[in-house]
Amino acid sequence: xxTEEKKSHLCHMVLKGLLDKDLIDIxxxxxKVRKEMKRSLESFLKVSEDIDAFVRKxxxxxxxxxxxxxxxxxVLYKKFYKEDAARKGMxxx
Length: 93
Hints:
Elements: H1 4-20, H2 30-60, H3 71-87
């Protein structure tokens, strides 16, 4: 979990990098842009946490115990995470 300070810092750094490399042209106050970036980041993190909780619960529901951190657990976690992320519109391109 990222602290508020870390989220703010990340948004500052990303915006600064985009502006420094002339990749974006903002027509609003930078503060408003950073605020929207932070809101989007928080939304993304919330969905990611929800997916993580769902996948962990699913793995714990197996009748056969799958040890967290084992190769089998890692493979299944990644598979189920990717599937749930795709259902929520967060699939990798």
